[in-house]
Amino acid sequence: MTDPDFIRQTLKDLQAQGLRRRLLEVGSAAGPRVRIGRRTVLAFASNNYLGLANDPRVREAARHGIARWGWGAGASRLLAGHTEAHAALEAALADFKHAAAAIVFPTGYMTNLGLVSALVGRGDLVLSDRENHASLYDAIRLSGAGLVRYPHGSAATARDLLAKHRDAPGRRLLVTDTVFSMTGDLAPLAALAETCRDFGCMLVLDEAHATGVLGPTGAGLAEALGIREGITAGMGTLSKALGGIGGFAAASRDVCDLLVNRARSFIYTTALPAAACEAAREALRIARAEPDRRERLLAMAKSAREALQAKGFDMGGSASQIIPIIVGTPERALAMAAALMDKGIFCPAIRPPTVPPRTSRLRISLTCEHTEDDIARLVEALIEARDQAKHAPSKLGG
Ligand SMILES: Cc1ncc(COP(=O)(O)O)c(C=O)c1O
Asked: For residue 245, what are the domain limits?
């Protein structure tokens, strides 16, 4: 088969399985209402949990940053791309995460690639929750370490596996999302941290969806549970609750120094623009100074889950601002997303390989800018969409 045949066939196969993805053009800034084509729709599709992506103060910080630093960083961090703005952001992030130091990467995805591959390599072993984010799986593959997946959320199995591999040569690392991106449930962190301590295993937490949302100061699930010991590194993103772009690892000075020396996704790429660092620092300041944003978000998520549960929707174990409506087949998920879009609601269908087979879903992602009325409208629309999708063919491509 020549390349073009293979490409066409792959796309055809994806289409036939209801798995082909398409880009949807949004014509306005991030917010609870966005323009798509000529319509303004109520959107539950963004990780802009604290509404900071379009906050006037964050915009102003970015504008000021550009005025001072220009736009592009022009070089990697280890050449001329490291500015006072990067250093100031890293100091603020370390303070936020109760860590000795923090290192910023251009994206959260690259943070995971760099972090895992700096900590382990060939001959080492990584334990990973089956539903961890794809970036962690790519990171493990890049590292060359052996991989053992444990069933989603099963701290008991993780303990058994560590016991089984107790005498294996090499280092051991356990990685877990803290708030899972497609299920919205929480990792059993206390049990995992204890297990890692007992077996001398490193522990990396992906707090991408918990950063700015959970814990007394919004630092994440580890903070919410009061867990400070035994965490090798906590990663977070600047791209979700903090409304910008970038990722970071917070850890000891030695771990951060190792990242600067070993993390290829830190070393061999251009630095995040200094203006993006200024915007992120302002977003972080607001997130810490205005706890009512995360309180409102979590209260709304709770009432949304209660309303959806009362109507019999399967939300898995969601306990956060991410609420999946698990419907099974890709076709059913697409049909429901299309029915919602007909009613002016944008709530994306998530299908394999992003989620396991037979668990295609709608992913509701709440932000503190949504209102109780928005939730009521969503619940009503979902009830109708569920009925319509029993018969309706799929109309939405992406
Ligand atoms: C759990 C998790 N980790 C890491 C990432 C990557 O973060 P970023 O989008 O900043 O690259 C994401 C985002 O998609 C995520 O959901």
From this structure: 56-289
Q: What confidence tens digit (pLDDT) does each residue in 164-197 have? A: 999 989 999 999 999 999 999 999 999 999 999 9
278 lines ligand 1 (CB under 6 A): no
How many angstroms separate the CA atoms of 174 and 99, rounded?
Answer: 19
**C-alpha 77 to ligand 1 mean position (Å):** 21
| Domain assignment of residue 395, yes or no | no
- pTM comes to 0.95
Q: Are 208 and 182 in contact (CB under 8 A)?
A: no
Largest CA distance in the chain: 62
Looking at the fold, whether 304 and 270 belong to one and the same domain comes out as no
CATH number at residue 85: 3.40.640.10
Could you tell me if 273 and 343 lie in one domain? no
Does 204 lie in the same domain as 82?
yes
pLDDT digits (tens, 9 = 90+) for 79-101: 999 999 999 999 999 999 999 99
Instruction: Give a yes or no: residue 4 inside a domain.
Output: no
**120 C-alpha to center of ligand 1: Å?**
20
In the chain, the number of structural domains is: 2
Q: How far apart are CA 346 and CA 138, in angstroms?
A: 29
Ligand 1 in contact with 46 (CB < 6 A)? no
Ligand 1 pocket member 183 (CB < 6 A): no
Here the tokens at position 61 are 């910080």
As a whole number of angstroms, the distance between CA 139 and CA 125 comes to: 13
Contacts for 325 with CB less than 8 Å, ≥ 6 apart: 308, 313, 314, 315, 336, 361, 362, 364, 382
> Residue 311 is encoded by which pair of tokens?
């109507």
Residue 306: which CATH number?
3.90.1150.10
Cite the beta strand spans of the chain per DSSP E: 33-36, 39-43, 101-105, 125-129, 146-150, 172-177, 202-206, 233-237, 247-251, 322-328, 345-346, 349-350, 360-365
Atom of ligand 1 nearest to the CA of 238: 10
Name the phi and psi angles at 88, rounded to 5: -65, -40
Residues 304, 254 share a domain: no
The finding on whether 177 has its CB within 6 A of some atom of ligand 1 is yes
**Residue 166 CA to ligand 1 centre (angstroms):** 31
